[in-house]
Fold this sequence. Notes:
The protein has helices at about 5-20, 40-50, 60-70, 105-115, 140-150, 175-190, 210-215, 225; strands spanning about 30-35, 55, 75-80, 95-100, 120-125, 135-140, 155-160, 195-200, 220. Strands 1, 2, 3, 4, 5, 6, 7, 8 and 9 form a nine-stranded parallel β-sheet that branches. Strand 4 (about 95-100), helix 4 (about 105-115) and strand 5 (about 120-125) form a beta-alpha-beta unit. The longest helix is centred in the first third of the chain and has 18 residues, at about 5-20. By secondary structure, it is an alpha/beta fold. It has a single domain, classed as Alanine racemase (TIM Barrel, Alpha-Beta Barrel). Bound molecules: pyridoxal-5'-phosphate (PLP).
Amino acid sequence: MAVDIAANLAAVRSRVAAAAIRAGRDPSEVTLVTVSKTVSPAVVREAVACGATDLGENRAQEFRDKYALLGPLAHWHFIGQLQTNKVKYLVEKVKLIHSVDRMAVAIEVERLAKQAAIQQSVLVEVNIAGEHSKSGVRLDEAVALVDSLRPLSHVRIIGLMTVAPLAADPEAARPHFRRLRGLAEEIAARGWPEVEMTQLSMGMSGDFEVAVEEGATLIRVGTAIFGPRA
Ligand SMILES: *Cc1c(COP(=O)(O)O)cnc(C)c1O
C-alpha cells in the first residue's frame, strides 16, 4: 500500500502540537524537518506539495544530487556526519547545517561562506550520551568548541543538535534531551555576542514528542512520514 504522506504529516504535526501544549509551549516554536534521505526526488516533491516546508538530508552527495534536480523548493537542512571535502556541496544551499562537530569542518564552512559573502547558520552537534558509534563533539568539550568557533565571522552558531541513543522506550531519551537543553543554557549564560543559543535540534520518529516536551525547536522526522527506509 502506498504511504499516505499527507496523513502522516498531519499526524506528526498533531502529535507535536499536543506535546507542545502539554509542556506549556506554543506549537509554532517547533519546526518539523522532514527527513528525506533515501527518498526519491518525486516523493520529496510530493511531500512538499503536502506541506513539508523543511527537508533534511544526511549525505552530502545525495543532497547535491537532489538539490540539482529540485533546487530550493523548501528549506534544506543538512543533518549528517560531515567531511571537510563535502562542505562545498552545502554552503549557501542549506538553511542550516546541524552537524558541525569539529574545528576543521567549521573552518571550511567559514572559507566557503566568506567566499559567497554570506553567513552560514550552523548548529554544534553534541554526542550527548558519549556513544562511541556516534558523531558529535563530546559533552565535556562542547563549550570549548563553541568558544573556538566564535572568531569565524561567516559561521553563525544558533544552537545545538543531538541524536539520542537508540531505545525502544522514548522516555529513555528524556535525560539526554534535558542535558542538551542544559548545555545550551550554560553556553547562553556565557553571554558571547557571536553565539545565539535559540535552536535545539533533537527528536526523531521514535522520540520527537519527548524532545518537544524538553524544548526542541527543530525535530528531524523521516520514518513517521515516509515509512521505513529500504
Ligand atoms: C535519519 C535521521 C533522522 C530521522 O530518523 P527517523 O527515525 O527516520 O525519523 C533524524 N536525524 C538524523 C541525524 C538522521 O540521520
